[in-house]
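Q: How would the structure tokens look for this protein?
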Amino acid sequence: MTDEQLVKRAQAGDNQSMEELLNRYRGLVRSRARGYFLIGAEPEDLLQEGMIGLFKAVRDYSESRNVPFSAFAALCVSRQFSTAVKAALRDKHKPLNNYVSLSEPGDGDPLKLWAPDDPESIVEGREDLRSLLEKIDRLLSPLEKKVLNVYLKGASYAEISEALGISRKQTDNALQRIKKKLAD
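A: Here is the predicted structure in token form.
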């Protein structure tokens, strides 16, 4: 079943579909969580924040936006981490103020999606996402699109290679080409 089909079922109250989506995207959440550090907190705390973002992605996804669920989920997970960082930086959270992102936007990785919570930036973020999706469709080869799709789900190089039946070197080369093409 596709992600979009599972989302529809989960939105209709099917708990098994929700559980399947949460399991499918657990790797994405883990890979995004690696970019953050919270002194005094357990890594599980970050994973919980990411899973909340994933849950919100399932709840709020709409196919009418013409965006694949995988891209929307990546955006929601990143946005949830951003929200957690902002909350940790508030005065009432002084003990948590050491939350540091190791992968802030602008770190040169065009595959990282990021959007703040203010309405103007959200609209700009949607336009940027549309532009990125058009660029992906226009510039990437069919193999590169497949690699990117699996990568965005949080898979390791080995998992991508296995899923697509290609070597790790081919996976690495494809990801390097993707980054170069999308950075231009």
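The first strand starts at residue 36 and ends at 37.

Confidence is low (pLDDT under 50) at residues 91-116.

Upvote if useful.
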